[in-house]
Design brief:
The structure is a single chain. An eight-stranded mixed β-sheet has the order 1-2-4-3-5-6-7-8, sandwiched between helices. It is α/β, with parallel strands linked by helices and about 325 residues long. It has a single domain (about 40-205, about 240-315), classed as Alpha/Beta hydrolase fold, catalytic domain (Rossmann fold, 3-Layer(aba) Sandwich). It has eleven helices and eight strands. About 45% of the residues are buried. Helices cover about 45% and strands about 15% of the residues.
Amino acid sequence: MTPLQICGIIAGAIALLIIIHLCITLVAATITFVTTLVRRNKKKWDRNLHFKVEPQITMDGIGIDWMKKNVQYKEDVHVVNGKINLYGEYFDFGSDKCVMILSGRTESLRYGYYFAKPYAESGYNVLVMDPRAHGNSDGVFNTLGREESKDDLQWINFLINEKGIKQIVLHGICIGAAGGMYTITNPECPDCVAGIVTEGMFANFYESMRNHLIEFHTLVFPVMQTINMLYKICTGYTMRKGPLDVIDTLDKPILMLHSEEDPYSTPDFARKLYDTCGSKNKEIVWFSKGGHSVLRFIDTEKYDSSIKAFLKKLN
């Protein structure tokens, strides 16, 4: 066998390995993308509890108990954004103020019950909603707050025009926080949206997803880049853009609730969000313990008292 033939065999083997690697990457990225951000039927991310582990089980039970105690005030509500039907529940306590609780990825309006108590005790009506592609709402893709923020504007108009609400506060968890940030910084957002409370808000979902892959010991490169490519093809957006790109334009009060142990929306990015925030009325409350989106469970008194103090400043 000549040296040229040997080189040809080696080159062919390398090319084959590269092709196999690319195929594996594409399959892994597609599975991750579909599992994380695509709903193929309404059984996925319906109104049932999906994370059947603690503390989510206990949080869900507390939220359901709150709903049952206030069921006499509850009304099923519905808005439409384009061709997307969106469903929610409105708890009318007779106020002209309302909180919109914006749930995170995989979570329906049922998740929002758990966060309602401090607002109801502060004299606010409560609106919980199924985000697009969740619960009873239509939709296929979770767009990480982008299209969801446009849905939020429809709900805001509903509260103003149909329910006579004069003041609205947004409370967002994770992706719900990102959607809320896009909403409140949108030039079309009505002035009656007085402020926003965020828990576990990420700077951009690219970094958050990257941290998920690292946690599960998944190859980051080039899987992450491929996931982002699929996301952009399907939604028109990139994961590399996020709340960090708009928070400098925020001119309304914000309360950021964040854990020093958050493995996804990491503390360094939370500090960067806070430092970049353009609001003259901004506050960040740190929780020394607790993972992602479980801060109220870890320290309910601190969580609720922080929100109540924030609401008092708005009035």
